[in-house]
Design brief:
The protein has about 200 residues and is mostly helical. The chain is built from four helices and no strands. α2 packs antiparallel against α3. The longest helix has about 70 residues.
Length: about 200
């Protein structure tokens, strides 16, 4: 093989190796950007929304108790407004539940919250008929159980969302480490081929 052919072949091999390393690097950068974008636009808003809905349940139950004990229509109205806001937040969470586990936990939270609202509506009916004792009994049993189930389901939802984010970050870190290894190997191979070409 002539000298010019050897130099050309060596140069071509160097270019191929460096191009392969560049492609792997671009893929890694793209995946890292995708993970960061997903965390910023999906995970963080989902966690904030779920945490807000979860933190709203305890004040909601306190409002329910005040409305029953004091029988003040203002508390009933305020409870209805806050309950509607929680329902809207749970509806919006559907936009961020991307895995089957998240969707299942969100479904449980929605179902429990609708059950809680239904029980509280029955409490208002009992109060309207003058049967405060049965209303208080419902508040201490069914309503309390369902509100606790809402909180538990939202906790599970946040754990699932956080686990998804951690898995994406771990995948990105693994891809980054593998890419750096490939780049270093490619650079070493390119230098070796360049030295071979220089020797020729």
């Amino acid at each position: 093989m002539r000298l010019a052919s050897k130099i050309f072949l060596t140069s071509a091999l160097v270019i191929v190796v460096l191009a392969g390393a560049a492609i792997l690097s671009l893929r890694a950068v793209g995946r890292l950007a995708s993970v960061n974008r997903e965390i910023t636009t999906q995970t963080v808003p989902a966690l904030r929304l779920a945490a807000g809905a979860r933190e709203a349940i305890a004040p909601l139950t306190r409002l329910e108790a005040r409305a029953l004990v004091l029988r003040d229509a203002r508390y009933v109205t305020l409870w209805g407004e806050r309950a509607a806001q929680v329902a809207r937040d749970l509806e919006r969470l559907g936009e961020y539940a991307t895995t089957a586990l998240e969707a299942a936990r969100l479904g449980e939270a929605r179902e429990a919250f609708e059950g809680y609202r239904s029980v509280v509506a029955r409490e208002w009916e009992f109060v309207g008929h003058g049967d405060v004792r049965r209303a208080l009994l419902l508040a201490d049993t069914d309503a309390l159980t369902l509100s606790g189930r809402v909180e538990s389901s939202l906790d599970d939802l946040m754990n699932a969302t956080h686990a998804r984010a951690l898995a994406a970050q771990a995948e990105a870190a693994h891809l980054e480490a593998r890419t750096w290894t490939a780049v270093l190997v490619a650079l070493g191979a390119a230098v070796g081929l360049a030295l071979l070409a220089t020797g020729l």
